[in-house]
Amino acid sequence: MEMTSLRTLPNGGSLKPDNLRHSQIGKPVNFCCSKYLQSAAISKHILRPALRFNSVPHLTHVSSTPMADSTSSVLSRVVPQPECGGHAKSDNVSPNLTEIIVIRHGETEWNADGRIQGHLDVELNDSGRQQAMAVAARLSREPRISVIYSSDLKRAHETAETISRSCGGLEVIKDPDLRERHLGDLQGISLREAAQSQPMAYKAFLSDRSDQVIPGGGESLDQLYQRCTSCLQRIAKKHRGERVVVVSHGGAIRALHRRASPHRRSKSKIWNTSVGILHLSDKDDWTIKLWADISHLNETGFLDSGFGGDKTSG
């Protein structure tokens, strides 16, 4: 997909840190720029700018500290950082919890076209690779990341490998339990075609029932939830007192939000390479510290109409 010139915000101004909403310690946070996106014209092939900041902080702090340079300058500094990797207990992480930095994979051509991927193995497009480089540059400044876990699907694994290269060659462990929801007969077709070509699967997909499976071997939301949350709990138990990166998919990440905040539905779309931070304690308490943040995509951009990352994620 061709990169087009990026646009400024509708009001012609620039975003400052006090435009953003931050959480108090221990409280969930929705951290994105959706109110600016809603007021912008939507075009399928126009890349939108994200938030602009002056520096990249450690992700563990949700504060008004500026967060990122322009991506062009950040990308020129994607080099291994000695403080990024390490197997010792991580700096600033309590020994009785695990900090998990959750990343959605970069963009694919099927995201751009509105085509349902599910378990089908689609690779990143050029924009997705640039997004992966941008989030990798951001994470390269994060101290003491122990390991990276990734879905075994190409779009997630390539994103994870890009992060690994920026973090001094951290180990990337593939785990199929981090895959996107299996969407059965809908996989490989566009959502706009689904109502006519696969009416039963389409109806199941839009059902409000969390136990509704999708014809053709697809999963229910409950099955997705069980698979993804159990996987994250295993990772957290193995890496107590450490900082870990997990690269997954929109639907899977929404399931993690449901576990961490069961009474508050996420209003934020899970954009490609958006960053979330979860704290999982040894008492099995889950806390959201940051959610759906895309401040590293200030020049690389993202599709505000790209498919996936919301309730229709696939």
Shape: globular
As an assembly, this protein is single chain
Q: Main beta sheet: strand number and arrangement?
A: 6 strands, mixed
What count of helical segments does DSSP give?
A: 9
Q: If strands are numbered along the chain, what order do they take across the biggest sheet?
A: 4-3-5-2-6-7
Order of helices and strands: HEHEHHEHEHHHEHEEE
Structural class: alpha/beta
- Quick check: average pLDDT? 77
- The separation of the N and C termini measures 20 Å
Q: Whole-number radius of gyration?
A: 18 Å
Strand content: 5-15%
Helical content stands at 25-40%
- Weakly predicted, low-confidence segments: 1-82
- Topology, number of strands: 8
What labels would you give this structure?
globular; alpha/beta; two-stranded antiparallel sheet; 314 residues; 9 helices; six-stranded mixed β-sheet; disordered N terminus
Topology of this protein?
Blueprint: H1 34-38, E1 47-48, H2 71-75, E2 97-104, H3 109-113, H4 126-139, E3 145-150, H5 154-166, E4 172-174, H6 191-197, H7 199-205, H8 221-238, E5 243-248, H9 250-260, E6 275-281, E7 286-293, E8 302-303
Parallel strand pairs: 2-5, 3-4, 3-5
Antiparallel strand pairs: 1-8, 2-6, 6-7
Helix pairs in contact: 4-5, 6-7, 8-9
